Amino acid sequence: MSLISSFVGVRDQASQQPFECSICQRGFTRRENLKRHSSIHLPNPQSNKFPCEWCPASFSRGDLRQRHVKKKHLDAGQKPLGRLHRSNSRQNAAWDNDAASHASSSASPATIPDSWHSSSGQRDDEMDLVLQQSSTVESFDDEDFRHKMSGAAHGIDQSIAQVKWFPTRSQISNGYNLYFEYVSPFIPFLHRPTFDASLVAPHLTLSMLSLAYQYGEDPDRDAMSGTGADLSLRCFEQARNYLGPMALASNNPSVDLSVVQSLLMLQLCAILYICGDYSCIGFELHHRMVSFARAAGLMQPSNTESTTTEDLDSLWHEFAASESLKRTILTAHQVDALWYQFLSIPRLVSNPEIKHDLPCPAECWMASSAQQWAHRQLVLGAAKVKYGDAVRAFLAPNPEIDSLPSFDPCGAINIAQFMLSSARELSGWTIMTGRLSLERFEPLKSSLVALEPFVRSSPTSQCCQSISSLAAWEMTMIELPVWWISHTNGVVLGSMDVFLEHATFIATSSEFCSESETAHSIKPHIEWFLRYLDNDVLPTSEPPWLILYAYKAFLIAWQLLDRGLPNAMEAVGVEAGNRVEALRWADGVFGRRRPRRLVEVILKCLGALNG
């Protein structure tokens, strides 16, 4: 649905903050920002754990208090009212006081825990009173999970006593190999060269295997077809059993990081691989992951890098630990953006709270020994750039990108995801207000042009991260002029099954782009996805969201072909107007891919197009 031309001639208003707090009259550009802000006005002491030292105000997050202090008090010469009564680092409540019962109830695959529904009814009613005059846009209540973590934290050893099953040695060994071959390339936060299987926490092992066995069969059952999916589901449920009692952040950064990594893997497994009813569980895990990462202080860079030791191997391991933390948080940020882009679920991770540097070059990360790592560090240099600084550099009126140090394609993905989310926000904001903000549209367009050299690597570079970053960039170039109707209509989707079915329905009932000029501008980006799908050689590792991007691109191409647009799918040998051949081609290129469940839904949707 092309709407850009309808708004270009409309003069942008001075005030572009349609969401106003009914208590303090502060304006916001996004409803989720208002919702996050409004929690400071609630009287519940459990939700305002970060009081200001200079005034009576209190905040739900430490970074919000820090921003308030810098803005209101640092230049005022005021004296603090007194020492804080609570620490702002390790304090966080966890989900209801039923962590133990959650561990036992999680064995039921179709049962959605009570924490998915609103368990803070009175507080939600107060929140609704604050927001009732602000917006009517439908969205998930992202406050439901913000402060739901209470109960004692139990160690891994106590968790082991609560479960009776664990994978065998052969299942674990084979699962690790599958994980690093098929999964790790698109979520590269576990450092394989220093990976020690004897030190891996049980919950992390189970989480790794839940994804790994989506790509292979169970060796203990003669690798029979379908046994891998069964083992994956069993590992998924047992990982939730282990993680159930681990509600609070510990004083051990490595343990806390392993919990966040497990929650990240499990939500991917639930939403992108198992799908269906498990998606609700996946979103609960996502909320828990974000809350846990904040409580553990993982949004901030670690202080593990040592300057005193002269042992090269120790320095290498410290580098791996620090880089693993950085990559984990950036991957969590990327996944948070994906749920917003595909399902229109409000984001939980704000860009300013990501304080980490962009990932180091892949050559340093993949070094197989301490000596090789040290040599590559010397050759490539040690210059770093923070994620926030990189985003600002690309959004600047005259981007000085030549001054940016080299970084891994993993970092380019996060920058591309930021721009894709920004395009979505711009489309929703414009539809809601009836105005097109050229002040936001033009910088976003120019920043995409500046980013292109970073994502469009040489033809010989076909690593998973390079392809993923380029795919995100290509999709942003499509979504900037072609706005997704479900998002602009305020529709929040509950699973990837629903997303695929809804996207297919839109393709048969509405026009994505009604203007030939718009169709011409997006044609090269549509063709990139078509050629990618048509490649005879399947990539060893392929992120599931790339398949979703490609399906969206195909739907636009199919609609253009159905309208008789010349050369709509000529790039893959489909003649103009030949719907039957287009669907036969799509059935072949999608049918040979994984994950299995997503592919099954896509093939079903292609059948609906044929009808």
How would you characterize the overall build of this protein?
Among the domains are: 156-380, no CATH class; 495-611, no CATH class. 54% of the residues lie in helices and 1% in strands. The protein has helices at 4-7, 31-38, 62-72, 99-105, 121-131, 156-160, 169-183, 202-212, 227-243, 253-274, 278-295, 312-343, 362-365, 370-380, 387-395, 409-433, 438-455, 464-479, 485-488, 496-509, 516-534, 544-562, 579-591, 596-610, and strands at residues 19-20, 27-28, 50-51, 58-59. The protein has a two-stranded antiparallel ribbon. A two-stranded antiparallel sheet has the order 3-4. The longest helix is centred in the middle third of the chain and has 32 residues, at 312-343. Residues 100-110 have a biased composition (Low complexity). Residues 19-46, 50-80 form the C2H2-type domain. Keywords: Metal-binding, Nucleus, Repeat, Zinc, Zinc-finger.
Short descriptors:
nucleus; 54% helix; mainly alpha; two-stranded antiparallel sheet; 4 strands; DNA-binding transcription factor activity, RNA polymerase II-specific; metal-binding; 611 residues; C2H2-type domain-containing protein
Quaternary state of the chains = single chain
Query: In what order do the strands lie side by side in the largest sheet?
Result: 1-2
Largest sheet: 2 strands, antiparallel
Number of strands: 4
Tally of individual helices:
24
GO cellular component, one term: chromatin
Pfam family, one: Fungal_trans
Subcellular location: Nucleus
Protein name: C2H2-type domain-containing protein
